[in-house]
Write a structure and sequence with these properties.
Order of helices and strands: EEHHEHEHEHEHEEEEEHEEE
Oligomer: single chain
Largest sheet: 12 strands, mixed
CATH architecture of the largest domain: 3-Layer(aba) Sandwich
Radius of gyration: 19 Å
CATH topology of the largest domain: Rossmann fold
Shape: globular
CATH class of the largest domain: Alpha Beta
CATH superfamily of the largest domain: Vaccinia Virus protein VP39
Helix content: 10-25%
Number of helices: 7
Amino acid sequence: MEVAMSDNHWQITYPQGMIKYVDFFRNELFQYEIYDAVVQKYINKYANIEVNKLCALGCGTGRHEVQLKRMGYEIIGVERNRESFPVIEAVFRENGVEPISLVEADFFDFELLKKKLKSQHFDCITLLFVPLSIEDTVKLVDIFEYFLKPGGLFISNQFIGYEEGFTPNITLCDNDYAENPLQKDLPYKEREYCVRLNTYKYKKNLIDWTAVYIFTDENGVVRMERDHDIIDVLLKDEYGSRLKSTNSSMELLPLYEVNEISTDANMPKTKDCIVAWRKKN
């Protein structure tokens, strides 16, 4: 994956054919059912309207959206990588859930969004597990205020601080193994699998994460691809300042530290928190 960066912005682009293998690890490690139940509780607590219609930004391979659809939400997913669409459809079939509507769009392109979303308005907008900078997350809050109903929420997640006793300015390495979740009924030797080698360079307010994926692709060719993410880590005393929207209609809500998931489902050594903004009535 290539990461195009400036000081406060980065854009993620996966190599062709890679997204399916990345999803092996999402399915294996992320505890979506637990995490999205926490998201629902947050919605119920802080939304000032009944939440039925939801827009999922960066819906990726659809695993958050499967859980949220099961909860009864009507969902439109916005994803700029069309290669994700067949993976999303397979994930919904695997889980026996009716598919959601999908829109291909760069969610920083306001005029394109108005055209693609036909100026619809939503009760809630989610941006979950999408590796954007804090500055770009706040920019999306400002953009999507237009599509949000008064009293509705814009919900994201953010890593805030490190585990107690952990000091950054260190490099850690580990490795993972994951199989194709759609092939769990096949004999062990016939399942697609992927090995991932991780290097995390921890700094005060970000993690530079490089992952090397080794897998056999659909043509039987052994491939090795590099994936590079920049993960912002927000210090708690920066919460009110760096996450404040420039749009006076959007008020920043209290953060919620997600302790319900295991550390294996998280970026190592970090604290995952739900952060949200509410559009004023």
